[in-house]
Amino acid sequence: MTAQHTHSSLVRLHDKTFTLLYSRKDIAEQVQQLGKRIDQDYAGKDLLLLSVLKGGYIFTSDLSRTLDTPHTVEFIRASSYGSSMPSSGHVVMQDLPFTSLEGKHVLITEDIVDTGLTLSKIIESLQSLHPASIEVATLLIKPAMYMGDVQIKYVGFSIDPLFVVGYGLDYGELGRNLSDIYVVVSDEAEE
Ligand code: IMP
Ligand code: MG
């Protein structure tokens, strides 16, 4: 950290305290790198970024703007139902806005993959729409928690299985607007 960082490195949301994990600069560099790889891999292909709401909105927006490859963007909503902390295992998918994905190369853009239950559910739903390919780009993954069998091609950061917020990720719906990513430091009020 340098003196130029005027933002606080501690954030309080609801009953928890969070400390800086990745700065906006770290994130921007990672997103650029992912964008480069995606441009190389999808040159000449009909690319569709499929953003998973809510958490994926900022990552998708930044990633989309690094790409030279012409692409369309769609949004789906998937949420782990009934808990502010992941992962309840009940994934609620809100309607896919597509009738056909034929010929489309779908790149799912996720904020974070934890157990992978959300992702499995999304991929399962997409397969029936017969896209040309399905791959996943996630800014963050917790490898120790991941139970899925899909290989995730584009990963920004692999992290320990701790709760993080910022850059789209929330704790009880707060913290999504933080430009940096923070990790929980205090669990004192956990039930
Ligand atoms: P999964 O189904 O267990 O992979 O959980 C994925 C979803 O849980 C993500 O899309 C997030 O909405 C949420 N989630 C998982 N880990 C975190 C975290 O550390 N902070 C905030 N949300 C998280
Ligand atoms: Mg969430």
Give a brief description.
The chain is of the alpha/beta class and 191 residues long. The longest helix has 19 residues.
How does the SSE layout of this entry go?
Blueprint: E1 10-13, E2 16-22, H1 24-42, E3 47-53, H2 57-66, E4 71-80, E5 91-94, E6 105-113, H3 117-127, E7 133-141, E8 154-158, E9 164-165, E10 181-186
Parallel strand pairs: 3-4, 3-6, 6-7, 7-8
Antiparallel strand pairs: 1-2, 2-10, 4-5, 9-10
Helix pairs in contact: 1-2
Bound molecules: inosinic acid (IMP) and magnesium ion.
Inosinic acid binds at residues 55, 80, 86-87, 110-119, 163-165, 169-170.
Describe the model.
The chain is an alpha/beta fold and 191 residues long. It is built from 3 helices and 10 strands, in the order E-E-H-E-H-E-E-E-H-E-E-E-E. The chain has helices spanning 24-42, 57-66, 117-127, and strands at 10-13, 16-22, 47-53, 71-80, 91-94, 105-113, 133-141, 154-158, 164-165, 181-186. Strands 5-4-3-6-7-8 form a 6-stranded mixed beta sheet, with helices on both faces. A 4-stranded antiparallel beta sheet has the order 1-2-10-9. Helix 3 links the parallel strand 6 (105-113) and strand 7. Helix 1 crosses helix 2. It starts with 9 loop residues before the first strand and ends in a 5-residue tail after the last strand. The structure holds inosinic acid and magnesium ion.
